[in-house]
Specification:
This protein has about 250 residues and is an alpha+beta fold. The chain has two domains: about 5-15 and about 100-245, no CATH class; about 25-100, no CATH class. It is about 45% helix and about 10% strand. It has eleven helices and six strands. The protein has helices spanning about 35-45, 45-55, 85-90, 95-100, 120-125, 150-165, 170-185, 190, 195-210, 215-230, 235-245, and strands at about 5-10, 55-60, 65, 100-105, 110-115, 135-140. The strands form two sheets. Strands 4-5-1-6 form a four-stranded mixed sheet. Strand 4 (about 100-105) and strand 5 (about 110-115) form a beta hairpin. The structure holds iron/sulfur cluster. Iron/sulfur cluster binds near residues 100, 101, 120 and 121.
């Protein structure tokens, strides 16, 4: 039996959280849910960290870290480092913290992962990639069995790959468009809205690049980060953004 292969962009392995050097830490402003496995582990932890974990997790409605008045994670130190990671190691992180800023798209025969641009370091890495998107297999494989993709799924993937192939070779704007295609088109697997998602890619690109001088990669990364933070990571806003594309006409879908 063969296992499910996982593919990632070739820049993926170069991602490292820049922690204390990050200007827009994901540990500020976002309420972070704690998964049940990690919660069980936290409940067994002793000492000052165990006591603080008990104090700083609110079980309702879903277990989550209680943010400070400044909306900081209670485990974020003054140096913007993670106290849980410092004291108990990477393995002690809850699933969301260990995963961020990664995303996954589940095809029938493969899983594709990527880095989301809400993270400023991921945005920098993606936009400075010197060549078009290249997917490489990750050594990790998944236990799920791959299945044969349906005709509809293959048509979607072909459409996605044609969009990717139409992107310019170089430049941060090209890498941005690729990212949007790679991130959003696969979601049509779940709702079949290929035309709307194609238009979403165009609209998101237009919105991010409106007013951009066409030169500064760091400015574009910041614009992409803000969009990702405000829209991509907010299901309601993303759905609203998507529904705004419903009336738009689409060619070549
Ligand atoms: S936004 Fe990215 S670089 Fe910044 S703290 Fe989070 S994972 Fe690290």
């Amino acid at each position: 039996m063969c296992a499910m292969k996982v593919f990632v962009p070739d820049y993926y392995a170069g991602f490292r959280c820049i922690a204390g050097a990050c200007r827009h830490s994901c540990c500020v402003g976002w309420e972070i849910d704690v998964d049940s496995e990690t919660l069980k582990r936290y409940r067994t932890m002793k000492g000052p960290l165990g006591a603080k974990l008990k104090r700083c997790i609110d079980p309702d409605p879903e277990p989550h870290f209680v943010l400070s008045a400044e909306e900081r994670c209670p485990f974020l130190t003054d140096q913007n480092l993670c106290e849980i990671l410092l004291r108990a190691g990477e393995d002690a992180l809850c699933q969301i913290c260990a995963d961020h800023p990664r995303f996954r798209n589940y095809w029938s025969d493969r899983i594709e992962m990527g880095l989301g641009m809400a993270c400023e370091e991921a945005a920098r890495l993606i936009l400075t990639s010197p060549h078009p998107l290249r997917l490489v297999p990750l050594s990790e494989e998944r236990e799920e069995q791959p299945e044969i993709p349906s005709e509809a799924e293959l048509a979607l993937r072909n459409h996605r790959d044609r969009l990717l192939a139409s992107v310019a070779e170089t430049g941060p704007a090209a890498r941005l468009r690729e990212y949007l295609i790679y991130r959003h088109m696969a979601d049509a697997l779940y709702d079949g809205r290929i035309a709307q998602r194609t238009r979403l890619v165009d609209r998101a690109f237009e919105r991010i690049t409106a007013g951009w001088d066409g030169q500064s990669g760091s400015d574009l990364a910041e614009r992409a980060r803000v969009f990702s933070n405000e829209v991509e990571y907010d299901d309601e806003k993303l759905e609203l953004f998507l529904s705004e594309t419903e009336g738009d006409s689409i060619d070549n879908v």
